[in-house]
Amino acid sequence: MKKRSYSQSLADLKSLGIRLTPQRQVILQLLKETKEHPTAEQVYHKIGEKFQGISLATVYNTLNKLTELGVIRELSYGDGSSRYDGNDSEHAHLVCQQCGTVIDIECPQDEVVVTQEVRQAGFQVSSYRLEYYGICASCSESAVYQLDHTYMVHV
Ligand SMILES: [Zn+2]
Ligand SMILES: [Zn+2]
């Protein structure tokens, strides 16, 4: 499935008889129009500029509701810090362990992920979540710079 845009998602919900409050619309729009995968706190800070007086609890409730409706995804990392993803298509993530950036990449073909070994285990895969952990390009660039710099200092 391709990523559904903000207006497509609104239309999808409307056809199901679901209307979003202006606050919910703004949060959905924010997530649909960013490539970032913000935490609830980050959403709260961005939304606060438009809706003064909105509480963090309301932001959490809205994010839960939108996840439940299937228009966004929640990526929980087991440490209590969920990130929210406006990209509702099948895709994989590159997670930078240095700066925390989460980058979308296209998901490899099913055959690559659901390997022979998985099939041999007799396991019926209904879905999977694929994430690569490491250092993003801009972090590794700055690491190279630091190494060069150290080198210069010592020479
Ligand atoms: Zn990084
Ligand atoms: Zn994503």
TrEMBL record:
UniProt KW keywords: DNA-binding, Repressor, Transcription, Transcription regulation, Zinc
Concerning InterPro entries, the annotation shows: FUR, Fur_C, WH-like_DNA-bd_sf, WH_DNA-bd_sf
Keyword Zinc: yes or no?
yes
**Cross-referenced Gene3D superfamilies, in alphabetical order?**
3.30.1490.190, Winged helix-like DNA-binding domain superfamily/Winged helix DNA-binding domain
Q: Does the keyword Repressor apply?
A: yes
- Return the Pfam families for the record: FUR
Per its UniProt record, what PANTHER family does this chain match? Answer: FERRIC UPTAKE REGULATION PROTEIN, ZINC UPTAKE REGULATION PROTEIN
Per the similarity annotation, which family is this? Belongs to the Fur family.
Q: What is this protein called?
A: Fur family transcriptional regulator
